[in-house]
Amino acid sequence: MIAEIKIRKATIDDASNLAALCCKTFYDTYHVFNTKENMEMFLEQHFTINKIINELNDVANTFVLLFERDELCGYAKITESKAPVRLVSLAVIEIARIYSIKEKIGKGIGKLLMDECVAIAKQKKKQFIWLGVWKENKRAISFYQKNGFEIFDEQNFILGKDVQNDWLMKKEIF
């Protein structure tokens, strides 16, 4: 059960805590499927404090933080920086990341973050919201489908030196 939830946009002051959460949630989700070397390389390429600061300073990005009581339990990164070829002519926004700490998976945190991402997409008058998800992450795919997303394409995702395959999924907003 979720109690005392607070959702807010991240600021530069959150960079250190956000970087730590990014590393923790990504590692917890994928370390059993990947080599230590590939995980370390990916985390160092994407989740350093300086990288997170740069992402926070990019006006194309919005980070949403979810706290239960005072504990940072999850986050989402929404970006307007790119669109897949099949959506390039449409008004779209991407959920680039959406993660909950493992202790809170299945407790509603993901749904609250998803609802906030959709609300932001509506505020920005987007037609579609889209995301990429590893084809082997059945739990995430099921979660996205329950939230109205459908598969429309696929793309490569590079984790360290390993090329993996992602589904691209979209949801119509208006």
Q: Care to describe what's here?
A:
The protein has 174 residues and is of the alpha+beta class. The protein has a single domain (5-172), classed as Gcn5-related N-acetyltransferase (GNAT) (Aminopeptidase, 3-Layer(aba) Sandwich). 34% of the residues lie in helices and 34% in strands. The protein contains five helices and seven strands. The chain has helices spanning 15-30, 36-46, 49-57, 109-123, 138-146; strands at residues 5-9, 61-68, 71-79, 92-100, 128-134, 150-159, 162-172. The chain has a seven-stranded mixed β-sheet, with helices on both faces. Strand 6 and strand 7 form a beta hairpin. Helix 1 crosses helix 3 (49-57). It starts with a strand and ends with a strand.
